[in-house]
Amino acid sequence: MDISLADLAFIILAGFTLLTALGVVLFKNIVHSAIMLVFSFLGVAGIYFTMHAGFLGLVQILVYAGAISVLIIFAIMLVMNQDPEKTNLPSPNIPNIMAGTYLTILLVGALVGSIWFTSFPEKVAPVSGDELGLLTGLMLGDYVIPLELAALLLLVAVVGAIILARGAEHK
Amino acid sequence: MEHWFTDIAQALVNWLMGLGLSAGWADFVLLIVQWLCIVMIVTINVIILIWLERKVSGFIQLRLGPNRLGPYGAFQTIADAIKLLTKEDIIPSRTDKWIFMTAPLFFIVVSVMLYAVIPMGDGMQVVDFNVGLLYFISIGSLSTICLLMAGWGSNNKWSMLGAMRAVAQMISYEIPLAISLLGVVMIAGSLRLSDIVVAQGNIWFVLLQPIAFITYFIAATAELNRGPFDMPEAEQELTAGAYTEYTGMRWALFFLAEYTNLVAVSALCATMFFGGWQGPGLPSWLWIIIKTYLIMLVFMWMKWTFPRIRMDHLMSFSWKILLPVSLANLVLTGFGLEFFKWMGWW
Question: CB count, 10 Å around CB of B22?
Fold first, then answer.
């Protein structure tokens, strides 16, 4: 069997992403889980790179691995007041386990089903040349209103967070 | 002299292809060789830099600095490095072991990764990425996680406080840093670093974007956790911040990574604002070294002349002054570009 470098890179990255994602679930210390989540984000970014979506991969690193994960780790550190070795244990509650199992089966079923029934085209021609320019053209041209609306939503969220943090008496 | 290094790389690829490797694998091997070269340059460079830093601080504070070992004390850092290498690797018993042990490794890996896109000469880039600048910024943002890991893993109040400060500071200063670089990107019309260098053939961007240069320089100093913005380490109050519990080689790796970041940020500054590898007479790779070292001397000058500023002043400076100024510069650049196009000067 002849494996090309791109296939090898994909296999390594996919394996890395899956292993770290498993680590997020299985580690007993929730800080370790959060750090595994960072690696999982990086693995996904690597897969984007192998698909020639460099911009998407870098945004994944900048936003998820660089910013959101710091937020997650900070939140964990602020609310943790027990032995860190016992913060991410499996739930002892039977209904919780049942709900988790059903949800997992449902999601895996939906994923497998959608992959099975989709007829993927044999060969897709890669975008030639300036994929970044194409993306910017779409984002700031055809879809500029949804983009601005998303920005507005984030602004509202930021203002809301500041009001919550400062409290109402500062009015 | 100009094509020494590109010729060596080409010869290596040709030799590997002659051995029967496909072009893809030959490039892969070349990538690993380039990587090893970068690691070697970084390690040797840091020995020179630490000596330089001690000499510069001595000069500024009217001291002699290291002057016993070798001419002008040049071998002092080599002796220090050997001492650090042979020291015992102490891991305190109450630490979070894996996080404590791996944090310095990730920190140095992230710092070395920054060098992948920096053009170190004409055609001397490991990867000529079409979003090279974004790569630099996003990989740089990963170092916050490593400091947070070090602070958390040490299980020590000084370390944790230092890490918290470092993260708050680095996240705040990342925004003016990126926005000030956007002005340059707008003029050059590309995120590819080699394009940005070529766009400065006639005039350096420091002359077109002086405000962006100043905001970049301040934000970069804060990103590097260097004085006057070294609150995360603040020796008098936090002993050594996130590095308090580290000893021997692990501590040395943090130190190495900090200087590696310093070189990377200075090289980016030279690339973005001072024409990169372009210059008369000398070969391109020598020009970027000269420019990088001059910028690093300014960083050292700033560190040893300004007093450290308070944490709350630091944060409000970023959000209330630096960010509005860099945003205003962005708007000004946009209007300026349109005006130039309208007048037909561009």
Answer: 12
